[in-house]
Amino acid sequence: MNNGAPLEGDILDHIPYVDTSREVLNGADPFEEHGTNPLTEIDKKDKSKPRMVCSHLPYRLMPNDVKQGKIKVILQLRNIKDATNSNYFLWKDSDMLIDSSYTLDEWIHEQLKGEVPFGSWIEHTKEWWSHRDEIPLLIMQYEDMLEDLEGAVRKIAKFVDVTLTPDIVSDIAKRVTFSAMKKKPDMFDQMKQLFTTPYLRKGVIGDWKNNFTVAQSEKIDKALQERMKDVDIKFKYE
């Protein structure tokens, strides 16, 4: 939280991205066998104060320190329909994996099979949920954060043992709104190397309704009913 002070420059310089190397973020071909291990770079960060990293990886690919409960994890989840919709538009025009002829129907089909970048939303959520009592894990829902951002800031601060004054909580909440971040595109400069579409698009709840057919929505509902029975999380879709 940087003691309430705003971060300057690219956000990935402050909160490193575990999922890919610095070389790929700087434009290298992700399918070439080269690049530094992101964890090695993270390990060079100042160890005198708590460090933060971000990742889309599943629990099974986490470092052992995570699995041994030595690291606090904040799991941010977004409802599967909006997440699928958002990821489709993010990757749709990317030169990395698919082309613009790739349809939303194809994306939904592949997503439910886990054959899209970062795999199945359902399996990812189930896997983290199954380990919730084994590690220090705080589950935050994107929709709840949109509705009460100050409450989310306080909850995260308490989880990481940081004391914040009401003024700092309010200031942080103002700076991390979706609209505020869209006004600072330089924060996501490195993402422009990977995606031609805007990294921050809409960020609202329920945009999936503007693009999904009834059949597509029902297909996801059916998958959730069949595969998410053991996950006690109620998602908001509008």
UniProtKB/TrEMBL annotation:
MF terms in GO: sulfotransferase activity
Q: Which InterPro entries match?
A: P-loop_NTPase (IPR027417), Sulfotransferase_dom (IPR000863)
Q: Does the keyword Transferase apply?
A: yes
The answer, when asked if Transferase is one of the entry's keywords, is yes
Residue limits of the Sulfotransferase domain?
43-231
Pfam family for this entry, one: Sulfotransfer_1
Entry keyword set = Transferase
Q: Which family does it belong to?
A: Belongs to the sulfotransferase 1 family.
What name does UniProt use for this protein?
A: Sulfotransferase domain-containing protein
